[in-house]
Amino acid sequence: MKKRLLFILLAIGMAFIACKHQPEEKVKLMEVSLPPPPAAEKALSSQKFSAPVIKANEDNIEQDADQISDKGGESVPLATNKVDIEKKIIKEGDIRFESADVVKTRKQILTSLKHFGGYAENDSETTDAALRSKEYTIVVRIPAKNFDAFLGTVSSTATKIDSRNIRVKDVTSEFIDTKARLDNKLQLEKRYQNLLSRAGKMRDLLDIEEKLTEIRSDIEATQGQLNYMSKQVAYSSLNITFYTVQPEQVATGDGFGYKFKHALTRGWDFLQDLFFSLIGNWPLLIVFAVVFVFIKRWRGRRVAK
């Protein structure tokens, strides 16, 4: 019995010594990744695949707007479309000339205008009875490619050209800037429409709709400016003024009545000229009157003696 007990103690001692000399195994907690419990795993999966909740308050709206602002935000650059870099030229002019027959000239101008694909914006007529003149003013719009040819046709109808001025303006850079602003505003509108579809609160909806109304107003104004500039480039403007002076007509005749009337008119004109000439020489009349009175008195004294 004692030998068996001693053997057991000896075995326990050897086992203790062996365990003491065995190297310790260090475990780093950071390297251990435990699987989440079923409830947590379900919550994580729900959070990963559910639609994000958008709080469309003022700060979020401004942050999203800044990323696609019409000036091209620095945080998220906008995708800009390639703009046509063809030169955009606006040509305008005016011409004033004298014509022998204004009615015929007007007809020729309108016929030529129709031939070159233009149209008249304004057509007015003025008659001055005192100056015996008639004047026409026509403001036309002509395709830019036909401007020079049409101007040459108009000049050929003139008897004497008083003035001719042609003005050319390059609006290429202005056109490109306006087009870029319009594209950016359209992208900004799409971003706000996306926010509108994802907003959940009534206050957020009202704020976004108010911002969309402001953006739409800017888009319409910019589009109108771009359309007007395109029209100015496509159709040149020319202000045409032409006139004629009627010669003074002198009545002629060989009848007795005409000659008698003409003689009375000349006699009356002669009396008027004589009367005004005498009034104009009144100092000489006074001198003659004084000399006449002096001579008459002197002769009277001699007769009395």
Automatic annotation (TrEMBL):
What are the entry keywords?
Answer: Membrane, Signal, Transmembrane, Transmembrane helix
Q: Does the keyword Zinc-finger apply?
A: no
Q: Where are the transmembrane segments?
A: 274-295
Identify the stretch annotated as signal peptide in this record: 1-20
What sequence ranges are listed for the domain DUF4349?
87-294
Pfam families, alphabetized = DUF4349
Identification of the protein by name: DUF4349 domain-containing protein
